[in-house]
Amino acid sequence: MTSTATPLTEETDPFCLSTVDAAAMLSGAPWKRYAVIGDSLSAGTGDKSVGYGDQGWSDRFAHILRQVQPELAYLNTAVIGATTVDTLQHQIDGMRDFGPDLLHIPCGPNDLLRRSPDFGEIEQNLRRMYELAAETGALLTTFTLGRAYVVPVFADWTERVRTLNDITRSLADEYGAVVVDMYDHPVNARENLLSEDRIHFSTSGQAVMAGEMVRALAATLRRRTS
C-alpha cells in the first residue's frame, strides 16, 4: 500500500524548533565562545532533505545561540573521517587557543571502523580529550551514536555502538558534560533519515539534533538557576 501520510517539513516536524522558540529556550545563556571539534558528526555532515534547511546541526545551533549572544564567536574544526587520535593531534591546540566557554567534543565513531576496535585505547583517547577540554573551563557537550548508523560489513556493529555509547556516557558523567543521547531517539526509525552514504543523518536529522542540543542545554540552564 502506498503511504498517504503528508511528508514532514522543518515547520511540522515535532522534534524541530524554530529559531525564535529555540532562542527563547536559551534566554540568558552565558556562552560567548562556542567551539566544535571532532569528525563528520561534529561537523554536521549530511545530504539535503526536502522541506528542511541545508545546515548541519552545529551551524544551526551557532545561529540560534547568536540570537541570544549576538557577538558569539564560533569555531568548528571538525574534519570528516577524523578519529580520536586525529582530533587530539590536530584540533586540540586550536581549540585551546580559541578559549571556548561551550565546547562540543566527539564520541569516536570513526574509531569503530577498524577490523577489531580497541575499546581500551578508544576510552583512553577520549579520556585525554575530556581532560584537555575540561582545562578550558568550558561546559562540554557530546552525542551518543544513533541506532540508524549501521555498517553492515561488521556483524557486531550494534554491540560496537552500544559499547562506545557506554564509554561516552560514563566519561560525560565523570566530567560533567551534557549528553545528547540519540541512540533511542524516535528519529532513528524514519525511512528518510540517512544520507545517500547510509551513514550520516540528512539535514532533517541535523535539524532534530540541533533541537535536542537546545533542549539539553536549556535543561542545564534551568538546573543552574533553580
TrEMBL record:
Residues 36-207 form the SGNH hydrolase-type esterase domain. CDD domains: SGNH_hydrolase_like_1 (cd01832). InterPro entries: GDSL_Rv0518-like, SGNH_hydro, SGNH_hydro_sf. One of its GO terms (molecular function) is hydrolase activity. The keyword Manganese does not apply. It comes from the Bacteria. Gene3D superfamilies: SGNH hydrolase. Keywords: Hydrolase. This is SGNH/GDSL hydrolase family protein. It comes from Streptomyces tricolor.
